[in-house]
Write a structure and sequence with these properties.
Structural class: alpha/beta
Strand content: 5-15%
Oligomer: single chain
Distance between the termini: 64 Å
């Protein structure tokens, strides 16, 4: 039986790779005096050079020189220079194999190393088994094996032997995981798990298929169905705690594997694997259903409030004519009464003469109607929806195991009161019911002359529950997204150990007692500097007056004299079908190799079928329509390909391959060095089946939609994308793209628009080592904050808000660092923490302290913005690249009227990932052919100003055929190292 291959060809080449750049050669292979003495003892240049190379290889990467070992010429040249030996001497080394082996044994004795034997193999399997209990990624396992051998000073065998040991360790780890989970399952538990694979009565769905269905739409019926699903999961009464005995990564992998398979496939598994997979799937699915129930409640409450707002707005618009007529009538009445008073006349007679008593009575009645609570505050109108809430809230509150922090204990007590009322059928709110959670705007509705209004009391509690769950003041047992805030962070002892060792992955590695004073000193200096420039009117393009600040708009980023070159280059692009483009880009990069099989870890055997499934995502066609548009391809084939090879992690790895290729291409350097980036959200309407899952944001109108938030480098490569709700603020997801992309980009500075910043984000960006530069709209309304009262900053006074609360920052400094370290190490995602920190009404000490630190960093940035027109121009140029990329994405995502119509959130994510991968492929292809275009123009004698090349863009698509039937060439017509002919150039 063949040994399972854990590494791709590229990974196998890099795992024991020898460095080639001079900096690494110096760091790894500089020979000491003792080394040089040992080398000089060899006779002849060839032996001295060969001995030195063997010595270097055994030190790093720890391998023995054998016949097929590839030695980079850079290493040979560098060592030959160091030893003052001609590099050609290397060709003469090793003519006697005995000489090479003798040198190897002597070097191992010198280094204190041993050869790899059977005992080492067994120990390696045991060690890697511990790592395999946490991850099954082949590269990580092999790296762990390599490091283990290095630490024990054992010369590494070939990669194939290491891979065989890792495969054996992974097989053992899988069996242990299966045994661990199954060991806690009784016969009854196993019978219930087998029952999940059976078809439901009068349905085509299996039990597990029904249980894993997403809610159809945010209403009481869908909520009750989902509550039933959660109750059904709980009724299995499985030993849920057993899931914590297996590492989270492995449990999630098991669950994903089970989710990608049909019930028939799962039934064919041997019992240990089947029950372990079903158990993992049950654990993850129950957490998902719990989160979806909370999300449904959130959306139902939000929809009720929006409906009330719309109704009030409609009433206000409809009553405008009545109000205007009333104002005219009362104006006439006022004039008559004033005149009667001045002339000493009877005011009652004046009223009768001016408007009449009947008109006054009618106008007064209208005024009373317009000033009813329901017409003044839209919250009064939510009472019309109390019946809808009553259809699901008793079951909703009963099924959730709610816990609360001290700040929300009163709200939790109120929830318990409502539960009791639901259980007993009582209607009246007890006199001693908690009320401190009720905010002032709710009080007139909750507290009436007849007592506490049951409906408004309950609705107020449900609304505050929604807010408390989002902020983390309350949490739900069994939830993944709504856990205790502290559970997300690094464990206290782990954080303390990192801090004491000076290993915090932040700009302040030792806890930074001097960090904050240094930033405050810098802020004070910069405030006085900018204040002085402003007082002398020396801020370029900026005018500060008592009314605020005015900044002169920047000139057009692309000058007119660059347009002829842009048009000429675009006209020379070869015309190409999107299928040919993908095949050509894959030929350059091999990005399809990252779409590995979920079970075997191997790349797809049918590359064209895989690319067809990816294209179906990227152009938003879907598998059904794609199978109709692509000859010889069936829906079943595409569905199997997607289930086996397309996942979030495979999309991310393939995207990184394209981004790295773009970064390495010389022409991309004209646009930037890959250290700056921008991010922006692009809305797509949610239609058809997805309409019920979409969210509404008044900024985009009344139609539901989804937002794809994308990070774009200064070289135009879209290196990260994430599907989010349109109601979420962009700033929530800025750090995700910077921290969790898999490319080689080393981003140092990042740009966003106004929606992409918050004070919390400013603080975390600085601590994590990023320069944050958002383009803030209405900058005059954004306040500056000072270390002291700022009395000596007279010119900046119109912009100054208040002083920074340094006491709060100092008091919570350790918590701030723990939060930042948790985000940096991946203990918790940045977006989850940003969402909780920014959630209303959370105002705990950590959130407040982080906000104050963010105000300090935001003020420093704003001072730079006022003083540096180059920064303003650079940010605008960066954001323009992201906006232009969005235009390309809109053109590519053209099917289904550009709407996201998939009901499943997983499928919606695949659409977003496929779109980003496709745009990245187009960007890379355009970059390659832009380079060839400019080279051709130069060869034809057309003078090209090098300074204009930065204005060319790889985002055009007019030359790409995106529509029609999608056919793939039987073989790649473009041979390796060859390119398509350009169209004939015409002089500008």
């Amino acid at each position: 039986m063949a040994v399972r291959s854990l590494l791709t060809a590229a990974e196998r080449g890099q795992i024991l790779a020898v460095p080639t750049n001079e900096e690494d050669l110096v760091a790894r292979y500089t020979l000491s005096e003792a080394d040089m003495s040992l080398v000089r003892q060899r006779r002849g240049d060839a032996n001295r050079l060969g001995f030195a190379i063997q010595l270097c290889l055994l030190r790093h990467p720890g391998i023995t020189l054998v016949d097929d070992t590839e030695i980079p010429p850079e290493l040979v040249t560098w060592l030959a220079s160091l030893l003052d030996i001609p590099p050609e001497a290397w060709d003469e080394y090793g003519t006697r194999e005995e000489t090479r082996q003798e040198h190897g044994r002597e070097i191992r004795r010198y280094l204190g190393m041993s050869t790899f034997g059977i005992t080492d193999f067994r120990q390696l399997v045991e060690h890697v088994g511990d790592v395999a209990a946490q991850t099954d990624r082949g590269l990580l396992l092999v790296e762990a094996a390599r490091d283990f051998l290095h630490s024990r000073r054992v010369a590494s065998p070939g990669v194939g032997i290491i891979e065989r040991a890792c495969a054996q360790a992974l097989t053992r780890a899988n069996r242990r995981i299966h045994a661990t989970l199954c060991g806690h399952l009784s016969l009854e538990h196993r019978r219930r798990l087998d029952g999940l694979l059976l078809r439901r009565p009068d349905s085509s769905l299996t039990e597990i298929g029904w249980l894993r269905q997403a809610p159809i739409r945010p209403n009481a019926k869908a909520m009750n169905e989902h509550i039933t699903r959660l109750a059904t999961w709980r009724a299995l009464d499985l030993p849920w705690a057993a899931g914590k005995l297996v590492h989270r990564n492995r449990l999630l992998k098991l669950a994903r594997e089970g989710a990608s398979m049909t019930a028939a496939d799962l039934a064919k598994f041997e019992p240990g694997r089947r029950y372990a997979t079903l158990f993992a799937l049950s654990v993850e699915s129950m957490a998902t259903v719990t989160d979806e129930i909370i999300e449904l409640h959130d959306r139902i409450i939000g929809r009720i409030i929006r409906t009330a707002q719309n109704k009030q707005n409609q009433y206000t618009l409809a009553s405008r004519a009545t109000v205007a007529a009333m104002m005219r009538l009362h104006s006439k009445l006022g004039d008559a009464l004033i005149e009667a008073r001045e002339n000493g006349e009877d005011p009652f007679a004046a009223i009768d003469t001016a408007i009449g008593w009947e008109s006054l009575a009618e106008s007064t009645a209208q005024a009373k109607e317009l000033t009813r609570p329901a017409n003044e505050d839209h919250l009064a109108l939510v009472s019309a929806h109390f019946t809808t809430l009553r259809r699901y809230t008793p079951a909703f509150l009963a099924v959730l195991d709610l816990q609360a922090a001290p700040a929300a204990q009163d709200l939790l007590a109120a929830i318990k009161v409502i539960r009791t009322l639901n259980a007993t059928g009582a209607r009246k709110i007890p006199d001693d019911a908690p009320t401190s959670f009720i905010r002032s705007r709710w009080k007139p509705l909750v507290f009436t002359v007849t007592g506490t209004d049951r409906g408004f009391y309950e609705f107020c509690a449900l609304t505050e529950l929604k807010n408390a769950l989002r902020s983390g003041d309350m949490w739900v047992t069994g939830s993944r997204q709504f856990r205790d805030f502290d559970d997300y962070l690094l464990a206290g002892p782990d954080y303390t150990a990192m801090k004491d060792a000076g290993n915090l992955p932040l700009v302040t590695t030792d806890g930074g007692e001097r960090y904050l004073p240094g930033r405050l000193t810098l802020l004070s200096e910069r405030l006085h500097q900018v204040n002085g420039l402003a007082s002398r009117d020396e801020l370029p393009g900026v005018l500060i007056t008592a009314n605020g600040v005015k900044i002169t708009p920047l000139e057009t980023i692309v000058p007119e004299h660059a347009q002829p070159l842009i048009d000429q280059a675009s006209a020379m692009f070869p015309r190409i079908r999107i299928t040919d483009l993908l095949m050509e880009v894959d030929g350059w990069t091999g990005f399809t190799r990252h779409f590995t099989n979920l079970k075997s870890g191997q790349p797809s055997k049918d590359k064209q079928l895989l690319l067809t499934a990816i294209l179906a995502d990227g152009i938003n066609l879907g598998l059904t329509k794609m199978s109709e548009s692509c000859t010889g391809v069936t829906y079943a084939q595409l569905d199997r390909q997607q289930a086996s090879h397309i996942r979030d992690e495979t999309y991310s790895a393939a995207l990184a391959e394209l981004v790295n290729a773009q970064r390495a291409h010389p022409f991309a350097a004209h646009w930037g060095d890959g250290t700056t980036s921008s991010s922006d959200g692009q809305r797509f309407r949610a239609g058809s089946h997805a309409e019920s899952t979409g969210h509404v944001n008044p900024k985009y109108g009344a139609e539901p939609g989804r937002l794809i938030y994308t990070h774009v480098s200064d070289q135009y490569s879209p290196f990260h994308s994430k599907l989010i709700n349109v109601g979420d603020r962009d700033a929530t997801y800025v750090l995700d793209g910077l921290l969790y992309h898999e490319s080689d980009l080393a981003i140092q500075e990042h740009y966003t628009d106004t929606a992409g910043f918050t004070d919390h984000l400013f603080a975390l960006m600085q601590l994590l080592g990023y320069r944050f530069a958002p383009r803030i709209r209405n900058i005059g309304d954004t306040r500056l904050y000072t270390p002291s009262n700022g009395a000596d900053l007279s010119t900046l006074t119109p912009l100054i808000g208040s002083t920074i609360n340094t006491t709060t920052i100092t008091a919570h400094w350790d918590e701030i660092l723990r939060l930042a370290a948790s985000v940096k190490t991946g203990t918790v995602t940045a977006s989850l923490m940003m969402r909780k920190l920014g959630a209303y009404p959370r105002q705990n000490g950590l959130a407040t302290a982080l906000r104050e630190l963010g105000r300090l960093e935001r003020t420093l940035f704003l001072l730079d913005w006022l003083q540096d027109p180059g920064l303003r121009r650079k940010v605008t140029a960066g954001l323009n690249k992201g906006e232009a990329r969005n235009t390309l994405a809109r053109a590519v995502f053209f099917n289904r009227l550009g709407e996201i119509r998939d009901r499943s959130f997983e499928q919606q994510r695949y659409r977003a990932s496929g779109l980003n991968l496709l745009t990245a492929a187009i960007v890379l292809w355009n970059t390659v052919y832009l380079d060839r275009t400019i080279t051709t123009l130069k060869q034809e004698g057309n003078a090209t100003d090098p300074d204009l090349l930065r204005f060319l863009s790889p985002l055009g698509w007019e030359h790409i055929n995106l529509t029609g039937d999608y056919t793939w060439p039987r073989n790649n017509r473009i041979k390796a190292g060859k390119y398509r002919p350009l169209r004939r150039s015409s002089k500008p």
